[in-house]
Amino acid sequence: MGRLAGKVAVVFGGARGIGLATVKEFVAEGATVFSSDIRETAETVEGAAHSLVDATDEDQVDEFVRGVLAETGGRIDVLFNNVGIHLGKPLSDTTLAEFDNIFALNVRAAFLGTRAVLPHMIANKAGSIITTSSNGGVMGRPADPVYNATKHALVGLTKSIAVAHAHQGIRANTVNPGAIDTDMLRGTLMSPEDFEAKQHQLTASTPAGRVGEAWEVAKAVVFLASDESRFVNGVALPIDGGKAAGAMPGNRYSLDFELGVR
Predict the structure, then answer these.
(1) If 16 and its partner were Cys, which of 42, 60, 120, 247 is the partner (CB 3.0–4.6 Å)?
(2) In order of start, what are the domains of the chain with their CATH numbers?
(3) What are the backbone angles phi and psi of residue 42, rounded to the nearest 5°?
(4) Are 103 and 144 in contact (CB under 8 A)?
């Protein structure tokens, strides 16, 4: 029997990358999964229902959650908020429109999803809420300060939910990935050619000396969704090969450093 057998899981941002990898892991662990995204899923997962939902739209989020509750008899055991975009710009180059847009998407989506699901978890006296932040949500990074501000906001929101509702059986935690090899990293943050060319730049600042895989984040999400983590609450969990833990010896930041870890 899987670690999520009998549980109902809702995923916002489940069409690709970390979200899709998590949908697969949830299904493999026995959960009934309702996935959503603004796009069709990159891969159909047997055992998961996928819907087109704009996670920043209050009406669409509420309607989607009501549909899940109607189908499951009022149960949502796990919520995975995994919606977000990146903004790799210095503060001085960021427009007000860009600032408003990234906060509206990265923070608003998690707020709406959590607000829609939380009352039903409270009524059932159980629930695990997991939100994708970033290692930029627990440390400063010079290249993307406004993006990091949104990710810090998600950590603050999550910790506050954990403290406010732990006595009602609710757990809230974030996963905080570093560089993960996904379509978003390869195609949105940079071109596929740039990704290959910048492998050393991506890994030189990571103690593990490599980029992570989506399934490695998904496995951590499964743990936080399962009863194995029933006393884990309010945690911001870096999944970044040790980058958020601190500075490395100076010679490790060299772009020609070879670790041999794959």
Answers:
(1) 42
(2) 8-253 (3.40.50.720)
(3) -70, -15
(4) no
Active-site residue identified among 120, 121, 147, 151: 147
pLDDT digits (tens, 9 = 90+) for 159-176: 999 999 999 999 999 999
Q: Which residues contact 15 (CB under 8 A, 6 or more apart)?
A: 35, 37, 38, 39, 40, 41, 42, 50
173-209 pLDDT per residue, tens: 999 999 898 776 665 556 666 766 666 677 788 899 8
Q: Evaluate whether 17 touches 182 at the Cβ level (below 8 Å).
A: yes
What are the helix (H) ranges across 73-184? 96-106, 108-124, 145-165, 183
Strands 32-37 and 48-52: parallel
φ and ψ at 177, to 5 degrees? -70, 155
Integer-rounded Cα Rg, in Å, for the chain is 18
Active site residue 253: no
Structure tokens at 89: 């710009």
Residues 6+ apart with CB under 8 A from 83: 12, 13, 55, 56, 105, 106, 109, 110, 113, 132
